[in-house]
């Protein structure tokens, strides 16, 4: 995917060069980091002879959206287990998913928390038949294998000629994969910075996001230390309406740079980068690569 120079006065003033890796441009629907996270999942499902995929998510989930698009494109049936009761009007995300053939199965928030229970699995099998299960967000070993390929691809574009790679982290599966890919390809000194979009790791039911990165890397027999997680730029927590200052920042950034963001992930990364630039976190002459992980469909859930 193209790497574009960002025209952003805040960075120019500090003589920091910013490049954006446009993974939001992969496809209209099957796009961003969810493309990489699904790739090996779909291959594994196909190799094992599955005809149906099943996964989990909320009403505006980028993962559910990408999964529905991928299932349609590659000839799978798909079931989306959605958090919360079926609303009177489906979100635009779920309307699209349903239109592409995904069956939507709504569960209460309490049941959703127990989504990996054998009971729910049995119930879903009774209703829908056999399926290949992908965890929420596509965050498993196949997901980290796919995002590792993204790390390798970025290395091919920039070699070691950068200071930091920045990305937005939810489960931190992408952070784990990209860091592994970059290091495998030969970048030892530079760091990947994951800007957490969660208020605390408990937002997604993890003990600690850092421990998650280590687990994800272990799952593909990798262990690298070229990454860090930065907290404090979550704007109130996962999927929450952005506070006014962040919303104004997002609008201003989009207007100035002509790059669209989404309020759940990429806006928080850019906000974090802006705060760090203002504090001279990076020396002048630094070169950053920001990964645009997509998610623009999620803008429809917000009054922007
Ligand atoms: C899912 C998502 C992320 C977070 O990816 P993780 O692997 O869960 O950390 C980041 N950006 C966008 C746009 C996403 O949809």
Question: What do you see in this structure?
Answer:
Strands 1-2-10-7-8-9 form a six-stranded mixed β-sheet. The chain is 41% helix and 17% strand. It is of the alpha/beta class. It folds into two domains: 3-28 and 140-302, Rossmann fold, CATH 3.40.50; 51-130, Rossmann fold, CATH 3.40.50.1100. β3, α3 and β4 (77-83) form a beta-alpha-beta unit. It is globular, with a radius of gyration of 19 Å. The two termini are 27 Å apart.
- Rg over CA atoms, rounded to whole Å, is 19 Å
Helix content: 40-55%
Shape: globular
Task: Give the integer mean of the pLDDT values.
Answer: 95
Q: What is the overall number of helices?
A: 11
| CATH class designation of the largest domain | Alpha Beta
- Going across the biggest sheet, name each strand in turn: 1-2-10-7-8-9
- CATH architecture tag of the largest domain: 3-Layer(aba) Sandwich
User: How many discrete structural domains?
Assistant: 2
CATH fold name of the largest domain:
Rossmann fold
Oligomer: single chain
Structural class: alpha/beta
Bound ligands: pyridoxal-5'-phosphate
| Main sheet makeup | 6 strands, mixed
Order of SSEs = EHEHEHEHEHHEHEHEHEHHE
């Amino acid at each position: 995917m193209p790497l574009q120079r960002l025209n952003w006065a805040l960075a120019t003033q500090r003589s920091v060069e910013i490049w954006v890796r446009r993974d939001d441009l992969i496809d209209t629907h099957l796009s961003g980091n969810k493309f990489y996270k699904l790739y090996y999942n779909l291959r594994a499902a196909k190799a094992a002879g599955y005809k149906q995929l099943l996964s989990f998510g909320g009403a505006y989930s980028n993962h559910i959206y990408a999964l529905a698009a991928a299932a349609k494109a590659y000839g799978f049936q798909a079931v989306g287990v959605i958090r919360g009761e079926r609303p009177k009007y489906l979100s635009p995300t779920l309307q699209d998913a349903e239109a592409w053939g995904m069956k939507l199965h709504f569960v209460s928030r309490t049941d959703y928390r127990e989504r990996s229970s054998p009971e729910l699995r049995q119930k879903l099998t009774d209703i829908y038949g056999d399926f290949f299960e992908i965890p929420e967000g596509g965050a498993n070993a196949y997901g980290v294998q796919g995002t590792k390929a993204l790390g390798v691809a970025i290395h091919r574009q920039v070699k070691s000629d950068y200071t930091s790679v920045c990305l937005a982290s939810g489960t931190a599966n992408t952070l784990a994969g990209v860091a592994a890919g970059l290091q495998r390809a030969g970048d030892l000194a530079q760091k990947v910075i994951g800007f957490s979009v969660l208020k605390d790791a408990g937002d997604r039911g993890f003990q600690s996001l850092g421990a998650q990165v280590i687990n994800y890397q272990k799952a593909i027999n990798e262990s690298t230390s070229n990454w860090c997680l930065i907290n404090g730029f979550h704007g109130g927590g996962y999927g929450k309406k952005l506070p006014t200052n962040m919303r104004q920042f997002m609008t201003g950034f989009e207007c100035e740079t002509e790059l669209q963001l989404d309020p759940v992930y990429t806006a928080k990364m850019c906000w974090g980068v802006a705060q760090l630039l203002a504090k001279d976190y990076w020396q002048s002459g630094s070169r950053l690569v920001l990964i645009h992980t997509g998610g623009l469909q999620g803008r429809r859930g917000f009054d922007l």
